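In the laboratory, one determines a bound structure by crystallizing the protein with its ligand and collecting diffraction data. In a computational setting the workflow is compressed into a single prediction: the sequence and the ligand go in, and a structural description comes out. We illustrate the idea with pantoate.
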Amino acid sequence: MSLTTVHTVADLRATVASWRAEGLRVALVPTMGALHDGHISLTKLALEHADRVIVSIFVNPTQFSPDEDFGAYPRTLPDDQKLLDGAGVALCFAPSVDEMYPDGFATKVHVDGGMTNVLCGAARPGHFDGVAQIVTKLLLQALPDCAIFGQKDYQQLMVIRRFSADLNIPVEIIGAKILREKDGLAMSSRNRYLTPDERAIAPTLNRVLASITAAAASGADIGPLLAKGREDILSAGFDPIDYLEIRDAQTLDLVTQTVTKPARVFVAARLGKARLIDNHAIEPSHTAG
Ligand code: PAF
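The predicted complex, in structure-token form:
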């Protein structure tokens, strides 16, 4: 099956309706384009859950603040289409900003509470409102059986699970594991911003997270681990660090002493023009108390 690209909600809906008439299952993979192997791993997972896969490509202006990289964000539709075609994706939905936010658009989707005020929510005010707004629209426009989101944006995944449950959106939200380069760097469209020297430094984040994870899982005190991690990240050349924190894997509440329940260690730090994020799961192997 070769890839078809549509640019309007009407064409998206007509295609999905024709698949529904054949009794087919549908998966959606929302993206902002500049696709890489990490995205392709999401489409592979989607194909395990559905007969037809849609990939949306839309650089959503409402999730960027004015000082961020909305203008510079890579837009590579022809290359993206080639990749999707080779990956067995049936439909690429690539709407314009006017199609998604026509004149008179006035609706916001806001997820309240701790989950959106911490980590990237604190560092990027308004970011998750923009994500919630666009993902709500995409889910309702396509109404797939399931939608796939990468765990590199773990906080985003948790926010999406929250509002889709709260709003009774009838779509199963599936998290996909992080795909890494051979040297451990988490795949990201923003890795394109790195110079060769910065690219050599970038895997430090994964190394620091891995060593914090191993020690925290066996019951080490978190304070000194994070202090050493910060020192290693800064001395590698990252500056500033937005956060390096351990949080509960479900609630995202801060963990301050030792890890006794499934948790995750999260980092966001700037290297040259790129703001890189990553996280690792911590499964405690020691017995508390
Ligand atoms: O993770 C992303 O690429 C974006 O935040 C998403 C989910 C496609 C919404 O614009």
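The mean pLDDT is 97. Keep in mind that any predicted model is a hypothesis to be tested, not a measurement.
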